[in-house]
Give the backbone structure.
Amino acid sequence: DAKTTQPTSMDCAEGRAANLPCNHSTISGNEYVYWYRQIHSQGPQYIIHGLKNNETNEMASLIITEDRKSSTLILPHATLRDTAVYYCIVRVDYGGSQGNLIFGKGTKLSVKP
Amino acid sequence: EPEVTQTPSHQVTQMGQEVILRCVPISNHLYFYWYRQILGQKVEFLVSFYNNEISEKSEIFDDQFSVERPDGSNFTLKIRSTKLEDSAMYFCASSLSRGLGEQFFGPGTRLTVL
């Protein structure tokens, strides 16, 4: 089962920042936080991942709390094309990991004009 | 930008028939995966494949399922005798490493079993 808890749905106004929370209170020290999204039954798309430091790339920023029990994905200027289901996934990342992703139900983000 | 491709995009079959879903992973990737998503439900892991053998499989991946990398580019999922409950979107994914980093997903094959 997924080790994360996310709100079922969120709305965001176009052009505003979308802040998507995720709780992962049982995360272990060697587990990373990954974010993927799925736009209308397309294949999931990788967004970003991090261990304990905040991360930023061209798509989003990831803020992880100091105790690592929760994180927030930030889409700085949401567009209509960002409407999707966003999945927060906790995953061990070392050579011995199996690599498969365990998806929860995610957050359905609706960006509105 | 390299991408994972899947064929066909939609497959309709009769219950009890065999189906083969095809995937072409990104060319330099070494790890390959199949996931499925029943309509309205979560994306579920089926199987991972590395070095020409299964490295992990879920409880869903029973004897009716098999995977193969028949040549240097294709990665296939075979369902021997389809059931109504096999109707789902099937996603192939590939990655460069088993651990750190992203998995690249294909667009999926919608399988409908009648």
User: Anything to note?
Assistant: Chain B touches chain A at residues 4, 31, 33, 35, 37, 42-45, 48, 55-56, 58, 89, 91, 93, 95, 97-100, 102-108 (CB under 8 Å). The radius of gyration of chain B is 13 Å. The mean pLDDT of chain B is 94. The CA atoms of residues 17 and 81 of chain B lie 5 Å apart.
